[in-house]
Amino acid sequence: MSEYAIERVAVIGAGKMGTTLVHAFLQDGDVGPENIIATRRKEEPLSRLAAAEGVQTTTDNREAAAAADMILLCVKPQGVSEVLEEIAGEFGGGKVLVSIAAGATTAMLEESLPEGTPVVRAMPNTPSLIGQGMTAICGGRWAEPDHVEVTRKIFAGMGRTVVLDESYFNAVTGLAASGPAFVYIIIESLAEGGVKVGLPRHIATECAAQACLGAASMVLETQSAPALLKDDVTTPAGCTMDGILKLEEGGLRVTLIKAVVEATKRAGELVE
Length: 272
Ligand SMILES: NC(=O)c1ccc[n+]([C@@H]2O[C@H](COP(=O)([O-])OP(=O)(O)OC[C@H]3O[C@@H](n4cnc5c(N)ncnc54)[C@H](OP(=O)(O)O)[C@@H]3O)[C@@H](O)[C@H]2O)c1
Known about the structure:
By secondary structure, the protein is of the alpha/beta class. The protein has helices at about 15-30, 45-55, 60-65, 80-85, 105-110, 145-155, 170-175, 180-195, 200-220, 225-235, 240-250, 250-265, and strands spanning about 10, 35-40, 55-60, 70-75, 95-100, 120-125, 135-140, 160-165. Strands 3-2-1-4-5-6-7-8 form an eight-stranded mixed β-sheet, sandwiched between helices. The site of NADP nicotinamide-adenine-dinucleotide phosphate has 27 residues, from helix 1 and helix 4. NADP nicotinamide-adenine-dinucleotide phosphate binds near residues 12, 16, 82 and 124.
């Protein structure tokens, strides 16, 4: 196993996720702002990032990649090939690529890079923006366990992490990365229910969101099966059971299962 420590980091594509990663590095403190270089094509948001965080910025991906020993690829999946073509020449000497692009497999990424380049793939989700993320991580053909562990620690600053075989990545994308969108719809719908029975909208939304947050925390903290926790809420002949009957009638379970299955299928088609 190699002794791997990061000294300089390049964040290629400092959009939502890329900027969150910059914050995660700064919070972790192992890499100072002077050793972080962020890129994107638009200069204005880059200047704002530099002013706010003290990191270096450039619109030149090659310059950023040349200056770093870990390169985080945070552009949209459709932009991955173009950027890799641009920066591939800067790899070698143990430089590591960490990609968060949905659907881009380590094998695809490795194909565009010099043989032997360590590649780590991570799949975060948007709650990472507030430190409540879920990130799956796997190493490619030439990634050492240290590369995976260093990457895991970076994402641990943004929420929970799991190191997983890459064969699960489309499933994790369909569930954990798309999942927040499904849950927002559930929260929105619960709140509409609250409005329908007379609650002011802001109170209904707060009640719905906190019910989801509390229920999620119960699952994670008690480690109990959701079905058992649900049983605790359903008093015999009580009101919850009547609500559950309506959920079953409307096919909520089957609909959510199908949503994850469809999102998983699509995750496998994002990068060609
Ligand atoms: N959002 C999520 O929930 C989520 C979850 C898991 C994984 N991901 C992955 O994270 C990646 C980024 O997603 P995001 O939501 O952060 O998107 P985003 O906010 O649009 O960020 C992408 C950034 O890439 C920059 N960019 C585009 N082409 C570039 C180029 N040639 N060179 C340098 N920078 C370039 C864009 O800025 P300019 O237009 O200024 O160039 C933009 O700021 C995607 O691959 C996505 O699959 C996202």
